[in-house]
Amino acid sequence: MRVGVIGGGVVGLATAWYLGKLGADPVVVEAGAVGGGCSRGNNGWVCPSVSTPLPAPGLTAKSLVWMLRRASHFHIPAAALPRLAPWLLRFRAHCTTAARTHGIRALASLNTVTGKLYDELAADGVEFERGRSGILFAYRDPALRGEKVEGLEAVGASGGASWRNLDRDELYEMEPLLRPGFTCGIHVETDRHVRPESLTEGLAASLRAGGTEIHEGTMVLGFEWEGAGSRVRAIVTSRGDLEVDAVVLAAGAQTGPLARMAGWRIPITAGKGYSVTIERPSRQLRQPLFLGDARVGMTPFRDALRFGGTMELSGVNRRMDTARVRALRRAVSRYVDIPEAQAGGRAWVGMRPMVPDTLPVIGRLPSRENVYVNTGHQMLGVTLAPGSGWALAGLVVEGRAGVEVGAFGAGRF
User: Fold this and answer.
1) Local structure of residue 380 (DSSP, 8 states)
2) In the structure, what pLDDT confidence band is assigned to residue 56 with cuts at 50, 70 and 90?
3) How far apart are CA 256 and CA 12, in angstroms?
4) What is the Cβ-side half-sphere exposure of residue 28, based on CA atoms within 13 angstroms?
5) At what angle do helices 114-123 and 381-398 cross, to 10 degrees?
6) Residue 150: is it exposed, middle or buried by C-beta count within 10 angstroms (0-12/13-18/19+)?
């Protein structure tokens, strides 16, 4: 069974990996370079404990006005509002307690296999940088820790998260580079991290070693259909046609046009995130760190340090707002003693794929018999990639996912 996987990010590569494990013959088609999109510059957290949908109860008109401010961690440029208005209205409809509870339960179910699958990837010879020191959450305002604990308790009830509260002294003992002023923290012991670009490189190398074709720099122009058009038989690309028995659309924020080619509309946009990577920092964190007051995450890698955050809804584009990079630098410099944070390192922007309920879209497109989709993972791509890839591969090859994915079907749109 030859399956075309469109998208060479962490989700597409993980899907191809599990398709191969189940005996299929995957072929990957990537418009740019493998791992060169949203997978490349994120913080690399494998964090089932914080796997929650983004819509939250209590979003008001005042909140939306606050989002228009450029300094807001969740920012919507005014110029983008007319184009994004339909998406934002659907997002607002999911800002209910019932929708949030439903989303947390669905994500927790998918995350039951996350740690196991990451361990199996390493055992199967996929080479990537990883760590298991947990994630440290640091707060100056104790009320913010209280909000975080509520979220952890909601996820922990069904997701198996384990954490402990830290007082001021315990917090500084765990991370001496924090500047004065912090009062408390949380250490989530069950979370992990990977260097995401090493994960995509490792998956691609393993796939190639196993004989999988990976076509980089190859645009998808359309599909050829059998008979009345219910089944795809070939992917039409800028480098020729690829005959396939099934297709998986896993192109992140750019999956929308591909789905429309297959007769289905997925309301997907980009939640842009920013990061800065410092090579060989003069000082290094002991474990991944979340600055709760600034909403900035930081991850130590071998010979590198990365910090990132923010959510910008400005449509599907790779434009970099340098003011948001400067805001990230100021926050890190204010809260952590990292000399290079103010001006050093390499800035990056990536497009997180987001649908209005911010749950992944996993399953077959209702419009076609053999076209599937795996996208919409928002900030959880690295966390959910193995689980969603494994589940989708099971659907394609065996007709069953191995884990409940009904909440993620494309038919909900």
Assistant:
1) G
2) confident
3) 15
4) 34
5) 80
6) exposed
The beta strands (E) that lie in 189-318 are given as: 192-194, 213-215, 220-226, 231-237, 240-243, 246-249, 269-279, 289-291, 296-301, 304-313
pLDDT of residue 71: 62
Cα-trace Rg, the chain: 21
Measured CA to CA in angstroms, residue 114 lies from 48, 123, 153, 210, 211 at distances of 8, 14, 19, 23, 26
- In contact, 281 and 242? CB cutoff 8 Å: no
Lowest average pLDDT, out of 57-66, 88-97, 108-117, 393-402, goes to 57-66
**Does residue 148 register a pLDDT over 80?**
yes
Give the helix/strand (H/E) hosting 21. helix 10-21
Name the one residue in this structure whose structure tokens are 């439903």.
Answer: 102
Q: Which two tokens stand for residue 374?
A: 């795996």
pLDDT at 273: 93
Give the chain's domains with CATH numbers: 1-47+97-129+193-267+356-413 (3.50.50.60)
Residue 226: beta bridge partners?
231
Strand partners, 29: 6, 215
Q: What's the full length of the chain, in residues?
A: 413
Q: What residues have CB less than 8 Å from 28, skipping those under 6 apart?
A: 5, 7, 8, 12, 13, 16, 34, 207, 212, 213, 214, 215
For residue 182, the tally of other CB atoms under 10 A from its CB is 20
DSSP 179: P
**Rounded CA gap, 106 and 113, in Å?**
13
Q: What is the pLDDT of residues 305-361, one digit of tens each?
A: 999 988 898 888 888 989 899 999 999 999 999 999 999 999 999 999 999 999 999
